[in-house]
Structures are given as C-alpha cells and as structure tokens.
C-alpha cells in the first residue's frame, strides 16, 4: 500500500500514487464482494459503482465529485455487510486522497 503521496507507483506505469491506491482498494473490495456468499438487495448497485470507480481509475485522474458520489452509493449499498467494512474503508481512504471538491462561494 502506498503510504505517502511522495511515493512512486510500483506498477511501472505513469499513473500517480493516488490513482494506484484507488485502483488497488477498488480491486480488493470487488474481489471480496464477488466472494461474499450472501445476496442482498443492493448488491448490483455496489457492483456497478465499483466497476465505475475501476473505470475512472483506469482512465487517469478521476473527478472528485464523481468519486464521492460512487463512494456514497457503494457505502449505502453494502454498508450493513460487516464482512466488507474493512475493504470499504480502504476505498473511502483512497477516495479521500483526492481531496475535497471545490466549494461554491455563496453569500
């Protein structure tokens, strides 16, 4: 796991460490979700959004608001499945590496 933003990815590609971290976290959660034996009503939503996150990571620098939207949908879909909590937290941490989206200046 990459520990700081100053580290270079070990994949040999030119992707940044934040993208590499996101790619790894999403891949791990996808594998655990696929291996999880229980069916639950929103499993398909979680699978679709994880696929979307994987595609964003493969495409380069993802948009932070879209990352956060996918994370929210995934958390809502599998949040009650405690067996997936650790990997879900890893995805949340990877999304957090992209920082906060810019706020609108309202008065």
Supply database-style keywords.
107 residues; globular; mainly alpha; 0% strand; single chain; disordered N terminus
Tell me what the structure shows.
The protein is an all-alpha fold. Helices cover 58% and strands 0% of the residues. The chain is built from 4 helices and no strands. It has helices at residues 17-35, 43-58, 64-78, 85-96.
Low-confidence stretches: 1-12
Helix content: 55-70%
**Total beta strands:** 0
Mean pLDDT: 84
- What form results from the Cα inertia axes? globular
Q: Give the strand content.
A: under 5%
Radius of gyration: 14 Å
Biggest sheet details? none
Number of helices: 4
User: What's the order of the H and E elements?
Assistant: HHHH
Distance between the termini: 42 Å
User: Structural class of the secondary structure composition?
Assistant: mainly alpha
Condensed summary:
This protein is mainly alpha-helical and 107 residues long. Helix content is 58%, strand content 0%. Helix 2 runs antiparallel to helix 3 (64-78) and helix 3 (64-78) packs antiparallel against helix 4 (85-96).
């Amino acid at each position: 796991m990459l520990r700081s933003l100053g580290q270079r990815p070990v994949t040999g590609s030119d992707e940044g460490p934040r993208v590499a971290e996101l790619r790894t976290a999403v891949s791990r959660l996808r594998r655990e979700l696929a291996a999880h034996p229980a069916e639950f009503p929103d499993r398909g939503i979680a699978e679709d959004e994880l696929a979307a996150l994987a595609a964003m990571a493969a495409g380069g620098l993802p948009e932070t608001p879209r990352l956060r939207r996918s994370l929210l949908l995934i958390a809502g879909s599998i949040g009650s499945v405690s067996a997936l909590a650790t990997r879900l937290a890893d995805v949340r941490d990877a999304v957090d590496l992209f920082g906060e989206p810019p706020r609108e200046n309202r008065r």
